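Quick one:
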Amino acid sequence: MRSWGPGAPPPRRSIWSTGIRWSGRRPGEGCLQRGSGEDAVDGTIVGIDVGTTKICVLIGEVTERESLRIVGMGEVASRGLDEGVVVNVREATRAIGEAIRQAEQFSGYPVERVWVGVGGTHIAATNSRAAVAVANPRRGVTREDKERVLRAARTIVIPQNRDIIHVIPRSYTVDDQTGIMDPEGMQGFRLEVEAHVVTGSSTAVGNLVRCVEGAGVEVQGLVVQALASAEAVLTPQERKMGAVLADIGGGTTDIGVFINESICHTTVLRVAGNHLTNDLAIGLRAPFTTAEEVKRRFGHAMVAGVPEGEAIEVALFGDSGRQPVLRSYVAEILEARAEEILMLVMREVKRSGFDGLLPAGLVLCGGSANLAGLRELGRSVLGVPTRIGVPRGVEGLVEKVSDPAYATSVGILLWAWRETRTLEAQPARREAGLWARVLGWLRTFLPE
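Output:
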């Protein structure tokens, strides 16, 4: 079993508690690639969303206003992937390389290190609890204490063929005080954490990393796609009150349940947008590409949402050429599968045990969330508040990425930006803490 989370030794492919991979840098070297924009201060962050239908590379630039501006974008159709998992290393590597080159040409920045989104039905998660003694109760909980308890939380029994990708603290307990989001600085003797541990197949993760590095770049960190999408589309109130995110992509649907500002449940369904298209291709007796175009241009998730008697011309199999097809028939096919996907999402939520704690309802994103009428179908079938999530929190190429299909792509950048700032703040905090201890020691020798 390889480990991508906190507490692992620092070989070339380990990810620490913040989710950042040790990249062989010398001490003092920054985590970000340098940018050259007029108000760029911290350089660039690069994210790669390797999905079933598309591979998207975004380059973000951190500005002096402490904002993230997207300055580069590359997108190609996926090759060598099925349901978010690599099935052909050579084809996937070429496609990733093409997307990277497009982003480089768009932005003018070279890409050296990247953050990569991980998806697929091999993703699984569990909640873990652990406790440690506070090293110095009088001084209070330190960052080192938090790192120790997170390392303890990752000591769960998993098969040898799985990797730990994330160990995310949900809440802390200091002695008898529960529900603490950040215990640093609090006095106490015992520190306990409830953490969400996300794992993935070693083979699937390793093949993805191999393809990305085969394209000539270094993998700086991994982020599970459901977490990335939530980073881009969920509001702080939704995270706090309780909401379920469903990223309906081409090959899979990524689900994340959030309560009290933290992730509680993560899973992936093997049903998504391609199933909608395939159903339509079978029902119309048309090529898959034709069915995809019909779905995008004329599809609707509710029969009641299309005009009665309206017909469209569709090129079907055989030599009969283009034939008229009622839009209501197209909607009937799509509604059945869309309703099944929504019901499967809610079944997973009920299985998690949090179904009665989600007043913010359902947030849909991913390319298939663009299907007309899906929001209304969710409200009708599930009886919960439902909205379509659009990426937010970035500047720059907003018009290009303001689409549910780019939720994961934008979220990877936002996740990487947050984690990078956390890592780079640690040396400064440790240095400040050292000087505070030295001054405190000197004061003991000074007269009052």
